[in-house]
Amino acid sequence: MEGTEILPGADAGAAGEAPSFHGGRLIARRLKAHGVSKLFTLSGGHLFSIYDGCREEGVEIVDVRHESTAAFAAEGWAKVTREVGVCALTAGPGVTNGISAMASAQANHSPIVVLGGRAPALRWGQGSLQEIDHVPFVRPLAKLAATAESAAEIPGLVDDAIATALAPHGGVAFVDFPLDHVFSEAAEPVEPEHERSPEGADAGAVERAAEVLAGAERPVIMAGTDLYWGHGERALRELAERLRIPVFLNGLARGCLPADHELFLSRTRGQALKGADVALVIGVPMDFRLGFGGSFGEDTEIVVIDRAEPERVHPRAVAAECYGGAVGATLEGLLAAAGSRAPASERWIAELRAAEGERREGERAEVEDGRAPLHPMRLYAGLAKVLDRDAIVIGDGGDFVSYAGRVVDSYEPGCWLDPGPFGCLGTGPGYALAAKLAHPERQVVLMLGDGAFGFAGMEYDTLVRHGVNVVGVIGNNGIWALEKHPMEFLYGYSVAADLRPETRYDQMVEALGAHGELVRRPEELVPALERAFAAGRPALVNVLTDPSVVYPRKSNLA
Ligand SMILES: Cc1ncc(C[n+]2csc(CCOP(=O)(O)OP(=O)(O)O)c2C)c(N)n1
Ligand SMILES: [Mg+2]
Description:
The chain is α/β, with parallel strands linked by helices. The protein has 23 helices and 19 strands.
């Protein structure tokens, strides 16, 4: 590293030598070089040098009350910024506590880097405190799982971890740092070359997709999370508008076409996917959410567009496949290849629109339901009255969130966060913490089942300590409804499905320094929400909801 300037704070030897830093500082310097501004963590001595490095380099340390939240917050950061999210988990139990969050992020293709503490290499195998080899059990959950073998390796490993997490499909990169290495010093190598930006799918594949689409009379777009990761929203809109294709969105793609766009539909998904002659399946695998391909008609021709090859074999034949990291570029290519043919889909659109209108009309009774405790649909209708167009809504729970998924409208990308296909309860507080830190000027609403609240409710302490004014809303039905109702349906009874009725979670968060509200009757809801948003501190609106409401669910366990 001849000629490298000796930076302030670096320990340089004789003039002209490369500056060297301790391992934690090397980590922080690489994070900073990649634009990482926050490190989510829970303390442990194995991490002290990373903290010291972050402090020196100006990477903000956000400390939480459970490592799962630290990792969920890293994922939440990724979800709302489309940048890499980073957490640091201490050796042994810190890393094991982060496992569910790593599995969630991996399933969501969320780019996160998990930095692990690790017992010293010098004494490896002799039974140091918190000694365990994380790599073998993290590897199946991650794109990369590695241990730094020396301080000198650290910068390169951190660069690799960030690049690996971000490369399509995005996911988890884990690196742990033995105590002795992360506390020793090494030189910082020259800045590596920057990654090339991703490209769209190759022209031949796009041409083939355009051929399949040509002449479609009942086309449909079904787009999911990787549309969002691939920054495809602008191109999606243009494609849909120019070729007149109705659009259905799930996962993180929600909001990639605003909910009030004339081509956006949600209530007619089953009918539209079954009736389509051609379906563009963009950025979403044909997993249980799409009936393993069975949600489409038998004769529907499927065009798959994604950021990378699928992780699982498609469960049914597909007519064309286009893979490239930049989904937007692929969609632009498809539009160009489709040319200026006149769309033939107006009748189809009108038919779906009419059905959509009828279904929404059919929900009116639930939306206006005056019962106390409340019907969840009434709760969501009340919430819609106080939400801004760019509010970020986070769902963590069972039926309460299934209802939310039906009713809460998204108008911009990155405004709806749910746990995704791994379905892990307890994601919400970490997501909400990160979302509000990333967008302090926007409303961040955390929808919680009362069961879900139990996993990470203590994070209200984190929100209060860091002044992160999230508004939580509990659908408090006193049960694990998503399990209780199906079990009763199958067995005629239920076990392990009850919680305490009317628990005062609002008082609990008040004890932690937040603002609490209790809502028993529908007319109390909107004023309570307004007070919560105006409270100037984190708030929780504890809404008693009716446990006898059964969500109309199709089984999706298999
Ligand atoms: C970590 C984890 N444990 C258990 C489950 C199984 N599970 C899914 S939904 C649910 C019930 C959630 O209850 P609550 O949050 O109160 O919402 P409700 O269904 O009552 O609206 C359970 C136990 C899960 N998905 N994740
Ligand atoms: Mg519940």
